[in-house]
Design a protein that fits this description.
Elements: E1 2-5, E2 7-8, H1 19-22, E3 27-28, H2 31-44, E4 48-52, H3 71-78, E5 86-90, H4 99-107, E6 114-116, H5 124-130, H6 136-149, E7 154-161, H7 168-181, E8 185-190, H8 208-232
Length: about 240
Amino acid sequence: VAFIQVQEGCDNFCTYCVVPNTRGREVSRSIADIMNEAKHLNDLGVVEINLLGQNVDSFNGVDENGKPSTLGDLIAKVAKLPNIQRIRYTTSYPSKITNDMIELHKSEKKLMPLVYLPIQSGSNEILHKMNRKYTREKYLEIIEKLKTANPEIQISSDFIVGFPTETEEDFQQTLDMVKKVKFIQCYAFKYSPRPHTPAATMDGQIDNKVKAERLRLLQQELRKQQDAFNKSCVGKVMQVLFTD
């Protein structure tokens, strides 16, 4: 397995995040530069490539003619390398996934059926305060499109509980989202202020005990779903890749 950094930086400015300040604005590598690295890895015998970016769906590197190219264009080129059998991409931003990228999950068999799609909260009110540029309804629409394109697709995500002003109702909307999507793997965290971010000075900071209890309940539900998925795999034959 090899990882190729194809895009760096972030233009989204979520109110809790320091990435735009530490990594800078979004910049993509050229297709030629990435493909030279991918071909070298292919020749070394690599069988899985993971394309990396802070917002990998925002990739817009230019091709050999100077024309902007999408993540889908890049994946299609990587998929032509003979030794590469598996392709992944990390991390996606929900509103940046295009219909062409979704359709690629139907047509490109080397593209692994796992999409890491951080949502952070199931509450539209909290998403707005986080400056996440989508709604819970839009997120569910994207999930439906992905699973229509490839019914085998599973979803991984990120959650933050206890964001400033998060009410019990907001948290219940997050639990409801978890039950609707049935994530098979997630990272879940208590909100913690980061210096020089808008959220750090927002009114309505949540008590740590409340955050800890919400995190416990969220992780409990996520574990249930992961266990259910694992049990659904019993008896199936799957192609897997062992790494060390």
